[in-house]
Amino acid sequence: MGPGMYHIGHGMMNILIRLTFLVSFVLAACNMQAQVTEAIEVGEIRAHVEYLASDALTGRKPGTPGGDSAAIYIRDRFREAGLRLLGEDGLQKFPIVTGISAGERCALSIAELTGELRKTFLPLSFSGEGSLSADVVCSGYGFDFETDSAEWRDYATLDVTGKWVLILRGSPDDDSGDYDPFVSLRKKAMVARDHGAAGVLFVSGPQFDKDDALIELDYQQQESSMDIPVLSIARSIADRLLQGMQVAELEKQLIEQRKPVPIACGGELHAEVQMERHIIQGCNVVGVIEGGDPSRTDEYIVLGAHFDHLGMGGPGSGSRRPDTTAVHNGADDNASGVAAIIEIAEQLAARRQSLQRSVLVIAFDAEEMGLLGSKYFVNNSPVDLTRFILMANLDMVGRMKEGEKSLSIGGTGTAIGLEEAVARVAAERGFTAKMSPEGYGPSDHSSFYSRDIPVLFFFTGVHDDYHTPADDADRLNYPGEKEVADLIAELLVDIAGRDDALVFQEAGPKSRPSASRRFKVTLGIMPDVSSSESRGLRADAVIKGRPADLAGMQKGDVIVAIEGRPVNDIYEYMNRLSDFTPGQRISVEVLRGEEKVVLIVEL
User: Fold this and answer.
1) Would you identify the CATH topology of the domain 34-98+281-496?
2) Is-above-0.85 flag for pTM?
């Protein structure tokens, strides 16, 4: 099929898809016959959920027609309720990188041999771009470490400055665990770069992979690119580079001898790397209800819920049934939360004259992809973050058990007196509230807590339908959700009318990075895994009494180097830490605003 025919067919298909969504949207809107009233109505909550969780929206995955239709629906409900829309007519758009592929300009050659993209060579997902012509040096497994039980120095007698480094994948032992912290591809590439390498070539020996498969391009949301090219090459190319033995024999000797095996390489290798990033557009939906007190209208309570879900599921989607391709409607997760904030916003807008402070209402996109929408919002807020006195987040509030008025509320320790206020309102409405003080949790409020904003997280509990195609609209407890929404609305009115704004206090992370045999030490921070920093890793929280805290690290510091070696993202941070053992003293370089600070940390 020619390019012209493909584009015509593809365009017509998009038009048909969008017309289908437009028709379903109009019908749903007409059938609702929604009335803007102060009362939160069970029927209106149900109508919102049934539309957002309908098959027509195919799981509200970001960047799809279903996700776009959900955003427009929410925006229109905000407008009907009288909210002033922010952004582009209520939409705050942002880019989402969903994958990466090798561009057609990628090339590799050695003398008269030309590599074949995707057959004999392929860039890794974290490869840098550009071209490099240089000699090749083989560093065996590419190790450079010393532990209590093992030592391996592949670079001790090598000069790799400005050269390609050829590295075998894996290690000589998969059972002892001695090599576990040092075998990752990124770790090996970092070690080579630290020794001055200008590029890295990975090859699989037959004992590691008899099929000699190239390393697949597996994009990770939080992964940044290195500043040197990193390629996976077939054994046929590596064998052309090695002198005196082939990859199979080198691997055999390394496994048997458990130490570096010197081997020469010959010839100059030229490669060009071009990467193509696949970008979709996400969007948050943002509206504001101005408070009635002119002296406090520039103080804000944020009311939020995420509207995205898992689309059609499948491997890598987050579905608990990854082998099933079907619409994941996400009725409880999180059409329930969105329906509730629409109804709460409608009530608050009708009572705006009695509100002293303003309420910012936000439906977040791409929460399921790593809180991307809320992270983008706090980094690009149209309102000064220092004016936020509370963020209330609703995520899965539609499955309260029949006959029970129970609710989990997190973040109650993030402001002085907040727990008492929550407990009082919950008791007045007959709720049994399971409260936890921690500000961190698995949803969008964490993005605000990391910026010293008090938070509350409302949740009616997990269930067997979570992240499966069975999370459908007919399984929700709508009268129970109305009770939850009424409670939250009353609580927000109470907080909006306080004489004094809430005062933030830190309530440590809800969960901490788990330890494993790979990592013997930790700094004791909660890293920002979806940071917008161009380089480095931002500390969203510093745990009191842990090494980073004792060394003087502060929340918001951006770690850019450990022991003088660069840290560009969470992966490099973890790989750097794997080099150290308890009791060591290391230097950690951070950016604190515009200032560079070097801390001495005792692990």
Assistant:
1) Aminopeptidase (3.40.630)
2) no
